[in-house]
Design goal:
By secondary structure, this protein is mainly α. The chain is 59% helix and 6% strand. The chain is built from 2 helices and 2 strands. Strand 1 and strand 2 form a beta hairpin.
């Protein structure tokens, strides 16, 4: 008996007869790949930015203690954006790396 792919308007699809297990495996691997690529992007961009800044000025340009409240707020918003980006990219995985 052939398996037919069933798609719906909300983006979910599964093959008739397998209970959606194939879709769960694909979703889990895509979520893990997205999270891994996001972390790689952050490391490459952050490292490249710091290296270029060091080459031009002799300083890495990364400040852990901000001189005023506005700079601290901007730093906290940047950190929140990075964390929310990681949560969004890996948010469809449970503790064992399976799709939710």
């Amino acid at each position: 008996m052939p398996h037919w792919r069933v798609a719906s308007f909300d983006g979910r699809s599964s093959r008739c007869g397998d209970g959606g297990e194939a879709l769960a495996r694909v979703t889990a691997s895509m979520a893990a790949a997205t999270l891994g690529l996001y972390i790689l992007f952050l490391l490459l961009v952050g490292g490249l930015r710091a290296w270029i800044h060091y080459r031009r000025t002799g300083d890495y340009g990364i400040r852990l203690h901000a001189p005023n409240a506005l700079t601290r707020l901007v730093g906290l918003l940047l950190l929140a954006g990075i964390i929310l980006g990681a949560v969004a990219s890996g948010g469809s995985l449970d503790e064992e790396g399976r799709a939710i």
